[in-house]
Amino acid sequence: MWLVLADTGDDAAVWAAQRLPQRGVHPLRLVSGYELTTGTTWDHRIERNGARTRLRFSDGLTVDDTQLRGVINRLSGVFVPPAGVSAGDSEYAACERNALLLSWLVSLQCPVLNRPNPASGPGGYRSLGAWRQLAQRAGLHILPLVQSDISDRAENGSEDDAGQQRTVFVVAGHLVTDGDRDWDEATEAGCARLSRLAGQAVLAIQFTCLPGQAPLFCSATQQGDLRLGGPPLLDLLADALT
Fold first, then answer.
1. Residue 51 gets which letter from DSSP?
2. Are 35 and 5 in contact (CB under 8 A)?
3. Does some domain include residue 189?
4. What is the pLDDT along the chain (242 residues), one digit of tens a residue?
5. For residue 34, what are the domain limits?
6. Which of 113, 140, 173 is the last residue of a domain?
7. How far, CA to CA in Å, does 211 sit from each of 41, 163, 228?
8. How far apart are CA 20 and CA 28, in angstroms?
9. How many CB atoms lie within 10 A of CB 167?
10. Tens digits of per-residue pLDDT, 181-233?
11. How far apart are CA 237 and CA 224, in angstroms?
12. Domain contains 227
C-alpha cells in the first residue's frame, strides 16, 4: 500500500492521489493530517532494532509499516486541534503529535518523498533565508535580496517585474521543467542537488529569468501545486515510489 499524507483542503494532493493508481501506484490511500490526529489509532514502538508502527484508520483498515511501499508527505506540520481543546493543551498536543509523525516517517524503510528531519520538522518548513542558504550550497545562482525587496513585495503582493517567473519541479533529484525555455545544465544539476539536500524532496522551485543571465533562485517549497507539473510530474512521482 501507498499513502499520500496531506492537510485538509490540499487539492493538489487529491489530484495526485486520484491519478497515481493509473500509473501502478495501487492501492493508494489519501490520509489527512486531521485523520492521523483524531481518527487513527497508533501503535508506535521504539525497540533496539528500530521502530515499528501499526495504524488503524477510522474505517477499520489496519496498515503495518512493513506493508507500506511508499509515502508522499505533504503535511505542513500545522496542528489543527479537536474542538474543545484549550490553548495550553493544544500547544502540548502539537509538540507530541509532530514528534510522533517525525519518528514514524523517519523510521520507515520504504521510499518517503519529503522525508522529514528534526531541523525542518514533519512538514519540511524552512524560512526563505534557510532555503536561500541551501540553494547556495546546491550551486544555484541566487536572486539578490535586500530589505526594500521584502517590504515592497509585502506591500504590493507582486514578484520581481524585471524578469519572468518560472517554476521547476524536482522529485528526488529528477526534474520537470517549463517546456518553453531551455534550462542550462548547471541550473538543472543545482535543482537536483537542492532536492537531495532537502531530503529526497518533491520541490517546487521558483526562479526569476532575466535575458542573457542564468536563472536566479527565488524560493522553494515542498507544498507546491503538483497540478502545474502535469503528467510528467506524475510519472516521476510514480517512478520514485515503485
1. E
2. no
3. yes
4. 999 999 999 999 999 999 999 999 999 999 998 899 888 999 999 988 888 999 999 999 999 999 999 999 999 877 666 666 676 777 777 788 888 999 999 999 999 999 987 777 777 888 999 999 999 999 999 998 765 554 444 344 344 456 789 999 999 889 998 665 678 899 999 999 999 898 878 999 999 998 888 899 999 999 999 999 999 999 999 999 99
5. 2-113
6. 113
7. 55, 8, 24
8. 8
9. 20
10. 678 899 999 999 999 898 878 999 999 998 888 899 999 999 999 999 999 99
11. 14
12. no
SS3 237: helix
Q: For residue 99, how many C-alpha atoms fall within 13 Å in the half-sphere facing its CB?
A: 7
The amino acid at residue 62 is T
Query: In this structure, are strands 202-209 and 216-221 parallel, antiparallel, or unpaired?
Result: antiparallel
**Number of domains making up the chain:** 2
CATH label of the domain that carries residue 176: 3.30.470
Q: Are 155 and 200 contained in the same domain?
A: yes
In a domain, 16, yes or no: yes
Residue 85 maps to which CATH number? Answer: 3.40.50
Q: Which amino acid, one-letter code, is at 74? A: R
DSSP symbol at 132: H
CA distances from 178 to 30, 205, 237 (A): 28, 12, 17
Cα–Cα dist 191/148, whole Å: 27
